[in-house]
Amino acid sequence: MTDFLAMGGYAAYVWPAYAIAALVLLGLLAATWKGLRDSEATLKALESARPVRRRVRQQAESTRAETKPDNAAGSPAGASEG
Amino acid sequence: MHRFANPARFLRLSAMLLPWSAGATVILLIVGLYLSLFGSPPDYQQGDTVRIMYIHVPAAWMSLFVYTNMAAAAAAGLVWKHPLADLFAKAAAPIGAGFTFVCLVTGSLWGAPMWGTWWVWDARLTSVLILFFLYLGYMALVNAFDDPQRGTRAGNVLLLVGIVNVPIIKFSVDWWNTLHQPASVVKMGGPSIDPSMLVPLLVMAAGFTTYFVSVVLLRVRTEIAQRKIQTLRLGAAADGAAHGAPGVTS
């Protein structure tokens, strides 16, 4: 075992090489995982706040469509909803 | 919302692919590390320092592989305005930079005992250092604009210009005098390296590749979520103002 750890006298070069590779790959994975969890949580919070606003806007659209029928088809807001 | 149609399909595909690529990464890296550290002989000239090769060479291959993929994505993003292509390049950049960093540091750790120096300003080492700075420059550039579209466009141009560095790195050991040894795996006439060392090298390279696939899938998912967040925030900010405002970002 000590023979193996000694790496033929090159332990000071071989083990840091493996350690740095492990550190970089695991660190990137951890940072990626945290970033994904954080943004999915933010997105969820925003989306749960969203339907209320959309419903309000759709109501506004439909009342406007009733008063001005020829404007309803070309409404840009209607296009962005799809 | 049509620009989320493709990302939606991507999210389904990535959810299917991810368990396989993650599982393959774990298995390949365990087998690869065993072969690199126990299952392969020391080199007759370099002794046990040859084991650094099983990290150094796959990391170097990945640094070029990731950059080439990013440049291809940049071309697709510029020509076809494919939204996923931009996101892919942005997601892959830190991973490529990480592999390049590992390549440089392990190369230095290998060079110190074998060449008697940590660093030389020869063509191979310098061009890989430039590759590292290209990654960092790209990452800084895409995040330097308030409008992410402008940032990715500028970054894509940088990636395409920087692609000239890739063949320079590959052939630098043939074109210029260097301490660095020439290619012994990817070359005319087949590999000149013994199977007992070639097999662990290829297993580690396969493990690094599946690692890249797994992490880049997660990072693209993050980027898609970020774009949606931005769209929702702009939509909320524009609420009550002009109705067309959310579409301005597309």
Blueprint of the fold:
The complex is a heterodimer of chains A (82) and B (250).
Chain A: H1 2-6, H2 11-67, H3 76-81
Chain B: H1 5-37, H2 53-80, H3 83-114, H4 123-142, H5 148-162, H6 165-175, H7 195-238
Helix pairs in contact in B: 1-7, 2-3, 2-5, 2-7, 3-4, 3-7, 4-5, 4-6
Characterization of this structure:
The complex is a heterodimer of chains A (82) and B (250). Chain A has helices spanning 2-6, 11-67, 76-81. By secondary structure, chain A is an all-alpha fold. Chain A has a domain at 15-67. Chain A is rod-shaped, with a radius of gyration of 29 Å. With 250 residues, chain B is mainly α. Chain B has one domain: Four Helix Bundle (Hemerythrin (Met), subunit A). Chain B is globular, with a radius of gyration of 21 Å. Chain A: Keywords: Cell inner membrane, Cell membrane, Cytochrome c-type biogenesis, Membrane, Transmembrane, Transmembrane helix, Transport. Chain A: Its main location: membrane.
Q: What attributes characterize this protein structure?
A:
heterodimer, A: 82 residues, mainly alpha, disordered C terminus, B: 250 residues, Four Helix Bundle (Hemerythrin (Met), subunit A), cell inner membrane (chain A)
